[in-house]
């Protein structure tokens, strides 16, 4: 069960934010082995002063991050192999390019994993695998 924080500019309209959210969920279900109903996201709308980042870090030559920069911080639970993660990154970028016209330099993703016992979904009980 991935849980994602999406960090996005505060000036983006609700329709844009919804498209970003939907693009993420579609990419997770299509290429990251996530069930369709498994959707947990927190949208963090931040002002420009709250988003401090290097516009050029790890970008291709002649590309830089813009005000449209998005950060997805995903706690994935179970680990995925390298091919799955690579496919997810490509799928997410393609979906965001179509849905909101995102430039490839404006996408950053951080994936962290943890163990099942580090989750509690409800009732104050430790999670167990079905």
From TrEMBL:
Gene3D superfamilies reported in the protein's UniProt record: Macrophage Migration Inhibitory Factor
InterPro entries for this protein: Tauto_MSAD, Tautomerase/MIF_sf
UniProt xrefs under SUPFAM superfamilies: Tautomerase/MIF
Pfam families reported for this sequence: Tautomerase_2
Descriptive protein name: Tautomerase enzyme
